[in-house]
Amino acid sequence: MSKKTSSSDPTSAAYESAVKQLGLKPNIARALEMPDRELSVEVAFRLDNGELESVMGYRVQHNNTRGPFKGGIRYHHHVDIEEVRSLATLMTWKTSLVDIPYGGGKGGISVNPSKYSKTELERMSRKFFRAIDPIIGPNIDIPAPDVNTTAQVMSWFMDEYSQSHGYTPAIVTGKPLELGGSEGREAATGRGTAIITRETAKRWNIDLKGAKVVVQGFGNVGSYAAKFLHEYGAKIIAVSDVTGGLHDPEGLDIPTLFDYNYEHKTIDGFDQGNKITNDELLGLECEFLIPAALGSAINDNNVDSVNCKVIVEAANGPVTGGAATKLWDRKVAIIPDILTNAGGVTVSYFEWVQNLQQFKWTEEDVNKRLENKMVNAFNEVYEIKKNKKVPMRIASFMVAIDRVYRSYLLREG
Ligand code: NAD
To answer: What DSSP string runs through 282-336?
Structure first.
């Protein structure tokens, strides 16, 4: 099996372009691209009816040159070693880009969690954490939530680890507040997305006050991004979730819609705006289009209908490589995922620091530090974009790879 990430994904293409721009030798580029360690484990656990179930779990540790491996664990039937490897690699560049002292890792279990009861999921989670115990630790590898893994799953992980190693909240992030979670974590990725959109508006000479914004996906990231952009004065003209979209050219009442969605877990049934499909939503004329739902949402089939000035990638990989090339030709800017959605891992880092210090920061403190990290990363990327005349995605990878490379050289002699 190839140890490389797939060359068809935009991340891999951006990596190739960035290492060329940086002038890295092929052997160094290869060394930085290869994962440090990959672990596959069988996770056997009892079902409530006493039968034994067996699933596969993975943890990939991509690079720890700048700090412990860091990245989420997802439960999904599509999880395989290739996907986990690709996501672990992305984490190395994301943590480097926002300059937090971590490397990159990722994990997952190939399972459909909706098939199991809470007690079955608890047994599975604990068994998986025991299986990866030899390669994790608060200064070695710190997991976090990802698709279908909640604060409850993090509590089980933390408890399982603490039973054999002593009370160790710093072993995972994304915990509930009662167990050492951080203030501000829930809103962090959406807040970071809004901050990056605001900074983009300044550099692209777009007045954010009244700027038309369209958000695809109204979950954790999309709903908070819409809420903060509305507070900045933008006009959110359309949002959607898996049930479809709502459109009002005069701007949706975001605070009321946010509360409605928080309560009902969907925007379906909200009584403002015209109903539209997700395809129609992607084609609306606007200043900022924010895909905050799925990977590959903007692809060869729908890219020609996209009618915005800037795409702000809040989801991971929402624009395919082919679509990105077409948009670049049309001078539509794309602000890449590793920059836009790095607010989540940044506040995860703050959670870890608070756990290590056994001290709690206020939400105001967390938000101020998040603001600094996001703005600094944006400015660093923008300077490279301007000086080297490269797209924001390539500039982001250049900043991230160069920081890892310089640490790597010092450590390898
Ligand atoms: P979530 O599950 O809370 O929300 C997902 C939203 O997308 C929901 O509103 C859902 O209805 C909607 N959706 C699903 N399928 C859709 C479809 N076909 N069309 C339109 N909408 C659809 O997830 P989230 O935590 O908000 O994450 C969203 C994206 O951001 C994912 O790509 C995730 O990997 C990425 N991300 C999240 C975080 C984080 O901290 N939550 C951090 C980094 C990246």
So the answer is: HTS-EEEEEE-S-TT-B-TTTGGG--EEEEE--SSS-B-HHHHHHHHHTT-EEE-
